[in-house]
Amino acid sequence: MTKKEDNGISVNLISRQKLGQLSSDEKLKFILNEVKKGKILVLEYGLTPMEQTSLIESTMREIEHDTFIGVEMEGYGEDRPTFVQKIFGIIKKPRITLIGPANLLKTIRKDSNIIQTKIIPGKGS
Amino acid sequence: MGLFRRGNLSSILQRIFGKKHARIGVYGPPNVGKTTLANRILRDWTGDIMGSVSEIPHETRRAKWKKDVKVENGNSSLFMDIVDTPGIATKVDFKDFMNTYGLSRDEAKRRAKEATEGVIESIRWLEDIDGVLLVMDSTQDPFTQVNVTILGNLEARNLPVLVAANKIDMENSSPATLKSAFPQHPVVPISALTGYNADNLYSIMVKHFSKKRRRKKRR
Asked: Is the pLDDT of residue A1 over 50?
């Protein structure tokens, strides 16, 4: 854990450029490291379903009973390309994703338009 | 003339174009009724059961499977290896087992540890299956990240998915919500507990999982 600068909770917006520079493995390592430090991340350009699955797998390996119980992750599925986009070879793109430590971030409600979450105060960095 | 009756025709088409054997994974988040459904399928077609069920999440912590389960649909049939997988979750907190279900600290920690290993095993099994029976609780919000992640993963692999909208025996169930949430996949309302609509599920399983598809290789 990094030292706490204050009692607040860090919510970091990670740009698509930052994530775009990283390989899948580097991306997952970066996310998990940040989340384990108690940070909440908003990824402008989310993870692919395969990366999300890998993140779950990595998270399970990192769980420690008293310090890290896993992640809360919410986002929407990939954008579906239109017929015209398919013709021009435009592939599906992952959309914005919110990831944080499960002891700090709790999803209240999610539907096709809104993801409502709650930050549990008193934890994190 | 009888040769071209609907049942015979589908049987002939399956013999020519369809699969005769498929390995089907029963997937979903914890406590949606995966093992209850696997037990239902096995009981109906083999007289056997897959494993124990419990209201405590992560009861199934190792994948279990039964080979060569013959499921029939009229004149067609499909041999399936049914794989009952541990529930997939993004978090496992041993305190939940203590506070909500009254397990001792040691018991809760052991269960949590095994549950994390179970999630990894479930994900690993995705490499070795031909289709997925994705079980969802029709009394719950369908847009959970686990549902969205599993579905996205299966779509990326081009694996056939059949959504079993379970627990329709419950008063507050809403299988219609699941149907509208995932229109790109067949959604079959079912009660694994009572067996309600199981025949329809079997019929759609045979049709859906018999289709040949080219599986995409993904990392």
From this structure: no
